[in-house]
Amino acid sequence: MTVPQLIAAELRRLVATRMGRLALLALGLVPLLYGGVYLWANQDPYARLDELPVALVVDDAGDDGRVVGDEVADRLVADAAFDWHRVSAEEAAAGVADATYDFSVTLPASFSSDLASAAGDDPHRAIVELSTNDANSYLATTIGTQAAERIRSAVARSVGEEAASRMLLAISDIRDGLVDAHDGAATLADGADDAASGAGRLASGADALADGTAQLSTGAGALADGTGQLADGAARLDDGLGQLEQATASLPAQTRQLADGAQQVADGDARIAAIGGEVADAVAPVAERVPEARAAIVERLRQAGLDDEQIAVALGPLDGLGDDVAAADARVQDASAQLDRLAAGAQQVADGAERLASASPQLAAGIASAADGAGDLASGAAEAHDGAVRLADGAASAASGAGELATGAHALDDGLVRLDDGTAQLRDGLSDAVAQIPATTERERAAQASTISDPVRTDADAVASAGSYGAGLAPFFLSLAAWIGMYALMLILRPLSRRAITALRSPVRVSLAAWLIPTLIGAVQMAALLAIVGLGLGFPIAHPAPMLGMMVLAVATFAAIIVALNAWLGSVGQFLGLVLMVVQLVTAGGTFPWQTLPAPLAALHHALPMSYAVDGLRQLMYGGSMAAAGADALVLAAFGAAALALIVLGVARMVDHRTLRDLQPSLIG
User: Could you tell me the sign of the dihedral formed by the alpha carbons of 388, 389, 395, 398, in that order?
Assistant: First the structure.
């Protein structure tokens, strides 16, 4: 018999009876039901989360008239991501406990105030309370946790955007203030520069003032000494003028007497002069009569009112008359001339005495006034001395203060120079600060606040994308359905006919027939399952034909493995096929990444064929790497070839070892 004849014979055996046909149909539908129904149930559960009942409790008491909890609740209800029910805390607790609600979200009483605390001195986070019940559904708990996190993120983003808006507005106001401050600093820098220049001049002037006040202090000391001497002299002058005033009290009367006497003397001198002339004229003839004439003259002079001293002065020239008359005459002539001069001088004295007598009342009055003025001068000099002393003290203080002023002026000059430098640095620093804070419009600040509150976004650039939750599970369940389909078929198939083995004694032909029978049925199953997935459920398939080829290759490999187990171990091998399915269920990485498995199971990931079937189907279904899919196909083919070799070896073993059971097999092999 040929291989096709062996296949046809086995198929005729399967459909020979009504029960056989029903069994073949039922077992043929197992992978379709498993893969199709499961993927249909999980086609896109996240798209139907709006039917998930969730309790929403808003206990927020608000802050400053604003209830953020109500705003959040309104947005959640409007978003309709879940079937939200606003209820009380008691209703939510009871509903989560009895599965009325899958989970509950509570915004507590302090929600608004906690959010507002970020602007105060006691910032703390607001709380979104999540209540779950794993007895209702563990996945519902997971979804609730993710939902609460999204709510937290959304609220944080909203609050952050508001805070960022306020911050950016404050920064904008700060920039405006910095601009004004820069302008003021520029003005201040100019003023500081002028002040520094003025301070330099002030320091120079203060030095000059210090020198001048030092000189003033010296001069004021000298003035004090001089006014002291002036006061002493004025006092003595006052005393002297007082005495003079007393002494000149009788001056007018005495000067009048003096004037009268002087006039008399002048008159007498005139008469004497006249007499002298007469004497001179008479000297010559009466020289011999000189003594008698002298006596007569003396007598007359006494009569004229002259005293002896005056007479002696007047007659002095006559007393030296010698014997010589000529000499006497000359002397008489001289005496006569002198008498004339004496008469003229006496007249001048008389005139002066008259004037003195006339002026003496005024002189006395002037002396009295001078005495009074000398008293005032003494008082004023004393006061001037006191003032000069005070001036000296003040000048000394002024000199000391001027010295301190000069020191302070120099310190001020140094300080203003530093101030000038500092204000220039302030101006330049404010200019740099203004340059570093860009001017923004209200629209720009709004965009900036939105970016600050949510600075990172996910820009998904998928090399290959499943598109939905169900599509993400499809490669795993298609591979699992292929294994289950082969395992189920082995319950009714007898690919290794003991009679054929005994009759043909050709291990290769028997092995090929044993492998091709389930493979052909499995290929039909895979084609139908691909149609269900791609057309019935609408999952996108990037490479349909290569994917069908990968599915057929997978079912062929699985068929070879299961046939090989049966060839070598019989019913035990059938059981091991079930064990292998369970092991691959957890090691294939169909749901979670295989790297998350415990180390022993992770090691099995690379040692079992379903891992490569799942990966190859993912690459082809999602539009991934064709090279990776080709590598997976080569590994599956290697597994299949190895299994076929084991089948051939097993059939060869059966040729030499036959039993009664081989000739009369049971229904299940």
Answer: negative
Question: Of 75-89, 127-141, 157-171, 646-660, where does mean pLDDT reach its minimum?
Answer: 157-171
pLDDT tens sequence across 173-216: 666 666 777 677 678 777 767 777 776 777 777 677 777 777 76
219-226: list long-range contacts, CB under 8 Å, 24+ apart. Answer: 219/395, 220/388, 220/391, 220/392, 220/394, 220/395, 220/396, 221/392, 221/395, 221/396, 223/388, 223/391, 223/392, 224/385, 224/388, 224/389, 224/391, 224/392, 226/388
The 3-class secondary structure across 438-458, one letter per residue, is: CCCCHHHHHHHHHHHHCCCCC
Scan for tokens 């009380």, then name that residue: 88
pTM of the model: 0.56
Residues in the chain: 669
Nearest 5°: CA angle at 137, between 135 and 138?
A: 95
d(CA 498, CA 652): 12
Dihedral-angle region of residue 42 (phi above 0 means left; psi in -120 to 50 means alpha; beta otherwise): alpha
Best CA proximity match to 70, nearest among 31, 109, 15, 96: 109
**Using CA atoms, how far apart are residues 639 and 631, in angstroms rounded to an integer?**
13
pLDDT of 270-303, one tens digit each?
A: 666 676 566 556 555 545 566 676 777 777 767 7
Other C-beta atoms closer than 10 Å to the C-beta of 229 total 11
Over its C-alpha atoms, the chain yields an Rg (Å, rounded) of 74
